[in-house]
Design a protein that fits this description.
3 copies of one chain form a homotrimer. The N and C termini of chain A lie close together (9 Å). Chain A has a single domain, classed as Ribokinase (UDP-N-acetylmuramoyl-L-alanine:D-glutamate ligase, 3-Layer(aba) Sandwich). Chain A is of the alpha/beta class and 271 residues long. In chain A, helix 2 runs parallel beside helix 10 and helix 3 packs parallel to helix 4. The first copy, chain A, is 51% helix and 14% strand. Chain A has a 9-stranded mixed β-sheet, sandwiched between helices. The longest helix of chain A is centred in the last third of the chain and has 23 residues. Chains A and B meet through helix 5 and helix 10 of A and helix 2, strand 2, helix 3 and helix 10 of B.
Chain lengths: 271, 271, 271
Amino acid sequence: MTNTNEFTRLLTLVRSQKPLVHHITNYVTVNDCANITLAIGASPVMADAIEEAGDIAAIASALVLNMGTLNSRTVESMLIAGKSANQNGIPVVFDPVGAGASSMRNEAAARILNENKVAVVRGNLSEIRFIAGLSANTKGVDASEQDGGDTGKIARKLAQKLGCVAAITGAVDTVSDGERTIYIHNGHPALSGVTGTGCMCSSLIGSFCAAAPNQAFEGTVAALLCMGIAGEMAYEKAGHIGNGSFRIGILDAVSKLDTNILNERMKYSEV
Amino acid sequence: MTNTNEFTRLLTLVRSQKPLVHHITNYVTVNDCANITLAIGASPVMADAIEEAGDIAAIASALVLNMGTLNSRTVESMLIAGKSANQNGIPVVFDPVGAGASSMRNEAAARILNENKVAVVRGNLSEIRFIAGLSANTKGVDASEQDGGDTGKIARKLAQKLGCVAAITGAVDTVSDGERTIYIHNGHPALSGVTGTGCMCSSLIGSFCAAAPNQAFEGTVAALLCMGIAGEMAYEKAGHIGNGSFRIGILDAVSKLDTNILNERMKYSEV
Amino acid sequence: MTNTNEFTRLLTLVRSQKPLVHHITNYVTVNDCANITLAIGASPVMADAIEEAGDIAAIASALVLNMGTLNSRTVESMLIAGKSANQNGIPVVFDPVGAGASSMRNEAAARILNENKVAVVRGNLSEIRFIAGLSANTKGVDASEQDGGDTGKIARKLAQKLGCVAAITGAVDTVSDGERTIYIHNGHPALSGVTGTGCMCSSLIGSFCAAAPNQAFEGTVAALLCMGIAGEMAYEKAGHIGNGSFRIGILDAVSKLDTNILNERMKYSEV
């Protein structure tokens, strides 16, 4: 079984190292991604020009590729940055936003997975089912409610296929490295009422992987525990006020998270 | 006269349907647009690649075209998405941000109106006067104070010319379908101190048109009632604190709007 | 010595003129830049298409060039806008985000400084050292802690070299026009925990330069006093809550700043 202390240790590590996390991400939630990266204790850099994507990835400690508002230029940048990260031993976190929703997205996802080695892939169930080659029913970029299925089985299978960590976020989050599988029970339904909570999960995963590149599984779990707990804390404080305050509360909570809060509130099960 | 109950019914409809609203919009306020779309109960998707603009529009229930930070690539995407929406019977909401401020904007607006059939056009008085072919005095993207004129007449004329709903937002909002004209008296001057309130109006209009594509007039009025009331509620709660809190209060209020609040606070007159 | 009343006078001037400030800036913090420009009393316009960059700059009262998420297209737009601003006597504020971090950024910065005449250049110590031709140690887009040095000397030297105002922001801000040098002691360490505070400084500088183009030195100092004081006020009010609320507090404070607050709280020294 994974040692609980490992998750709190990783949080302390992120806070002490302040690692640089390079993002090539969408322009919808990029500000939230930058701010949550700072709130957890890491340092964000966003740079998507083809001419510098490789240079910036090379000086970072992790690379987050998010295809939310991809275009033909940024897909090339993602591939170049991914190659540079691979060459430099820097972990790549891939967020296949909207995979299944258009041919362009499907092809971009396939190219990234074929041409780059990713350390972690994180998506909602629709996206991960598509990536896993299963039938998916993607409705825009939010998870389709029709998608059911055994998330543990899907994540485990995808992790084995890609040789990486696979994470499915939803009411319960599922993380597998192909052998171990952890279900995270923290979180709040209100998180689906705010844009970018998925993207922010990927930024947190990037932050943890940057601090401990050899512990992508534990880092991914720690990141999702942090997001889930932050969602609970934000809802307790601001859920009755409305979506705007709840969203600000997420950043507040992440910035105030410490090992005590994490220890007290984390809820997960391992199979 | 338009039945007041129609507006509350449409709000309930948006909340129950959670329709997908495709945006090709500017990167300044895109996060606010996504969050207000979620707050009213719809589901946003932002996608502007030429290769997928048509595919994404085809799976959405409404399309919002906002030319705030247009470039030569995204203008093409808007036209492709608009064509796809037209072919699929999906209503198009057009927000001609900054029309009149540059030749590029003027030509883009003309192409969109010539090549696409729009269901609703919404802008400030400067922009709508320009679109209507009247003399305009556009100062950047905010309404020029010098622009006066009878908004009802301008909106009615433009609605007839384009065969769509025309909405002019300002201290008083004006909505016309060429026959009926409604003036909305909700709102607060502080809304002009926050960026993106116009863009957010267009996202709300898109959300209502997505839920009831055959009621673009009523949907546009309902959307502007919601924004105006949210502005009042946000100011009551946070206006004394400052612009940042007021802005968050708008999202809070939209997410908490219900048929009772709408019924109690809506103020409009019909001519 | 610079007259203290000059700073409060300039704030009043911005508020009364509501000058238009054209930004070609990054998509990470662009919303914050627009909102802080409104909060200080100016009017933002963001437009980066090559086809209109010159037109929009020509109708603005200041131009802010920020290369945070530059790409080959927007670099051209910056150069065109800069040329238009120069021809029309409109002050250009240059924010060389991440200078030193990639060849592309270094070349873009060199082109902008060679082909455009800038009124103010503002960056953190890493960026300004790079621009000044000194050795820099740029870690992404945040200031590298290893960079020490006498900021007054560096700013003065750069100001003389470029014939402009040079500003280095950090724990203490330094502003020089090559003759006068002012150190600003307002501010709070929490500002480094939020993305975009540097970019927002540049937007405020643009707003002040727009209102008083012949007083770029005094305007830059006034802008940084405003940001520093807003950071202090935001921390007093919301620092204990977390990063999200602190960030909203910055906009609140800027919108509520007046000449009394500025007079009471400003802390600077002139050499």
